[in-house]
Specification:
The structure holds three protein chains of three kinds. By secondary structure, chain A is mainly alpha-helical. Chain A folds into two domains: about 1-60, Four Helix Bundle (Hemerythrin (Met), subunit A) (Up-down Bundle), CATH 1.20.120; about 105-150. Chain A is about 75% helix and about 0% strand. Chain A starts with 5 loop residues before the first helix and ends with a helix. A two-stranded antiparallel sheet of chain C has the order 1-2. Chain C starts with a helix and ends in a 13-residue tail after the last helix. Classes of the chains: A mainly alpha, B mainly alpha, C mainly alpha. Chains A and B meet through α1, α2, α3, α4 and α5 of A and α1, α2 and α3 of B.
Chain lengths: ~150, ~100, ~475
């Protein structure tokens, strides 16, 4: 987050997302791991790179880290301290070291079923949301020339 | 397997880095990047809890992460469209300069 | 029912292909008419039964019905308002209708959410559609700026919320409200759970524009197109509150009882901040933004009381607030058609130019300020009564009541600033009379009827609110019962 060159930032983001995807795979969440690579690395990072290039902002504007940097860092540090403290203090968690009895193929097989049975309503909401986002993105980014009736 | 709290600490760190980025950086795209990192931290938490929790067969964690990823992608798309649009108006994507509405 | 509204939205999108640009307003009329039908028939058919569906993700109870009616009604008025506002939206009128319908769908789902997953996706549906609705006038910088600000803060809030939900899921191993409720006693000792709950509340606090998370409200209210602002002011806030009520009282009532101090403090801060900042405002929309923060304060006060009486007051207050805000924004839409600004100076002499509009505006503002016999007065009165009743156990509540009264007095001052401008603001800038189209006329009529009716005969809505609250918060606060029946 501290790099000046925006494209470098975006590429670092992609690398860390791949790392996360590997962790997901390590957690036996195969489906999510691959989704992560497809959606984040494949789509979101590329989208970000495109946006950066379209706005020609390869260099961060002058005064990158000047706006109240300390307050922001302090807030983030405080949040981290709270979260870490919470995790470390919760003794019960540190003792859990895995629940190896999970059949991986079971997970992948059942995701589809769950998605259209129990979770069908969220799925439909999601569909509407993506439609809305699609329309919205097109309308917002449509070029002015065409926009004028 | 690694103990659960290592995942949680990693996720807390990722969340804070994202938050710091979103608060400190003034470039709209980087703010969005920070927010994406925060969402990813939450997803990591979800998966870790799901895997180590008492009932991984319920798949609740996986389901939520699927929805969260979709939402994050939609948010990123709309957000970047907005940034491009504002760039057309102002030739900048610095958040500080977007303050015509103060009063 | 939600699906009907969602399908309607898609239908509007499709119909757009066949309808000439000039006659797209018909779509708005059609959508409003169908929405009214959904309101009447949908609620009629839902009325008797209540229960859960989709393995507990979705619940239909009096509370859900109350809010569904509420959202549908505001959806109808907002659509009519959009028809009025059509000239201001350069392109994509039918997309605006469709997105409005999507947002209403999200709110309907939110009203029935009984699971953190459901809550998250429906809130996101609302938020993402609002990103677009807010920045819809993309020729105008202010509108895009409103969209960007809402997007950045909204995305931040949803990141907090997802993280919070993850922590709650981790400690409780479930995302369902009713299962959380069953295990709240053991969970209240878990730090992870409490941290998660706090983070989720941060996300919801953003939705209702309560004090520390209010930063977006004035800018976004000012910059967005007026119908979008109206829907944002009512729908987003009410959706936040229905989820707040469900989460705090339906899922974790015991923890809520311990947190009343915090909630009370937030309520007082948002109330004072909103009221004080509203005083010097010149833009009416911006003023409404600050007033919405203040109103979030009142509503939170009703939540902080942690009693059924308080929750009933919250529901009633939302009803009254809804009609008044819709009326104000409809008037604004009509006004902005002729002048395109919402500066207070434009209201000068409105009393002469259009007595009807000025009259409606006065009525709505008076209701917001809490002048008796109007709806807003009853709402404020109910909240105050609940707060004072709680003062018997915790003396601190008397202080809250005092602050609420001070806030009401301040709000009287700034609301009547507009009224003074309309009648005694000197000569109008232009003498042209403003005509009211049938669409706006119907919307205004609905709002005025609502304001006056709720003020004179509050019992009907009061009974409904009481029924709604009884579902999640049985009268005996200690006797705990999960959300189901």
């Amino acid at each position: 987050m501290s790099l000046r060159n925006l494209v470098h930032s975006a590429l670092c983001l992609a690398v860390s997302l791949v790392g996360l995807a590997l962790i997901y795979l390590g957690l036996d969440a195969e489906f999510i791991g691959w989704i992560q690579i497809l959606v984040y690395v494949g789509a979101v990072s590329i989208l970000i790179v495109f946006a950066i290039l379209l706005t020609r902002g390869t260099e961060a504007p002058a005064g990158r880290i000047t706006f109240a940097p300390w307050s922001g860092l302090i807030i983030a540090g405080a949040v981290f301290a709270t979260l870490a403290w919470t995790v470390i203090k919760s003794k019960a968690l540190t003792e859990i070291t895995g629940n190896p009895s999970l059949d991986v193929s079971f997970v992948v097989k059942n995701i589809g079923g769950k998605l259209v049975a129990e979770y069908v309503l969220p799925l439909q909401v999601m569909g509407l949301l993506l439609t809305a986002a699609l329309i919205g993105a097109v309308i917002i980014a449509l070029h002015e020339r065409k926009g004028l009736k | 397997m690694n103990p659960l709290h290592q995942y949680l600490l990693l996720s807390a760190m990722l969340f804070s880095v994202g938050l710091a980025g979103a608060l400190v950086r003034r470039h709209a795209i980087l703010v969005l990047v920070g927010i994406e990192l925060m969402l990813n931290a939450a997803n990591l938490n979800f998966l870790a809890f799901w895997r180590y929790g008492g009932n991984p067969e319920a798949l609740t964690g996986i389901m939520f992460v699927i929805f969260a990823i979709a939402v994050a992608a939609a948010e990123a798309a709309v957000g970047l469209a907005l940034i491009i649009s504002i760039y057309r108006h102002l030739r900048t994507s610095n958040v500080d300069e977007v303050n015509k509405l103060n009063g | 029912m939600e699906l009907a509204v969602g399908l309607l939205g898609l239908a509007v999108l499709l119909a757009d292909l066949w309808i000439a640009p000039a006659s797209r307003r018909i779509l708005g009329w059609g959508a409003a008419a169908v929405l009214t039908c959904v309101l009447v028939f949908g609620l009629g058919s839902l009325a008797p039964q209540s229960g859960m569906g989709f393995s507990g993700l979705y619940v239909v109870d009096p509370l859900a019905r109350f809010f569904k009616a509420f959202f549908l009604l505001s959806g109808v008025v907002v659509l009519l308002m959009t028809v009025e506002y059509a000239d201001q939206l350069a392109v994509g009128l039918s997309e605006f209708f469709a997105l409005t319908l999507f947002a209403v769908t999200g709110m309907l789902f939110a009203a029935s959410a009984n699971d953190l997953t459901m809550m998250f996706v429906s809130l996101e549906l609302i938020t993402v559609t609002f990103y677009v609705l807010n920045s819809f006038q993309r020729g105008k910088l202010a509108s895009i700026e409103a969209g960007v600000k809402y997007l950045i803060l909204g995305a931040l809030a949803s990141a907090f919320m997802v993280f919070g939900i993850a922590l709650i899921f981790g400690s409780a191993n479930t995302t369902q409200f009713s299962e959380l409720a069953l295990r709240q006693r053991e969970l209240s000792g878990s730090r992870i759970f409490l941290t998660g709950l706090t983070l989720v509340l941060v996300g919801l606090g953003f939705k209702i524009a309560a004090f520390p998370f209010h930063g977006w409200a004035p800018d976004v209210y000012q910059g967005s197109p007026a119908p979008a602002t109206a829907l944002l002011a009512i729908g987003s806030k009410a959706a936040g509150f229905v989820l707040l009520l469900r989460l705090l009282f339906g899922a974790v009532p015991e923890i809520t009882a311990e947190w009343h101090r915090l909630l009370g403090a937030l309520a007082v801060l948002s109330l004072l901040y909103g009221s004080l900042c509203a005083i010097p405002q010149r833009s009416v929309k911006r003023l409404m933004g600050y007033s919405s923060i203040a109103n979030a304060g009142y509503l939170l006060l009703g939540v902080a009381v942690v009693s059924p009486a308080g929750s009933v007051a919250v529901l009633y207050y939302l009803g009254a607030y809804c009609f008044a805000v819709l009326a104000v924004f409809t008037v604004l839409c009509v006004m902005m058609n002729s002048s395109d600004t919402d500066d207070m100076a434009d209201f000068a002499g409105l009393g002469m130019r259009s007595p009807v509009l000025a009259g409606v505006m006065t009525l709505a503002l008076a209701s917001l300020a809490g002048v008796p016999p109007l709806a807003g007065f009853i709402g404020k009165f109910l909240i105050l009564r609940a707060v004072i009743a709680a003062g018997a156990t915790h003396p601190g509540y008397y202080g809250l009541a005092a602050v609420a009264v001070i806030g009401a007095v301040i709000s009287l001052y700034y609301y009547f600033g507009i009224v003074r401008m309309m009648y005694w603001g000197g000569e109008p800038l232009e003498r042209l009379a403003i005509s009211v189209t049938p669409g706006a006329g119907i919307a205004l009529l609905l709002c005025v009827a609502g304001i006056v009716y709720l003020g004179i005969a509050p019992n009907g809505l009061l009974q409904l609110s009481a029924d709604a609250v009884a579902g999640i918060q049985p009268a005996a606060a200690s006797a705990f019962k999960p959300t189901g029946h």
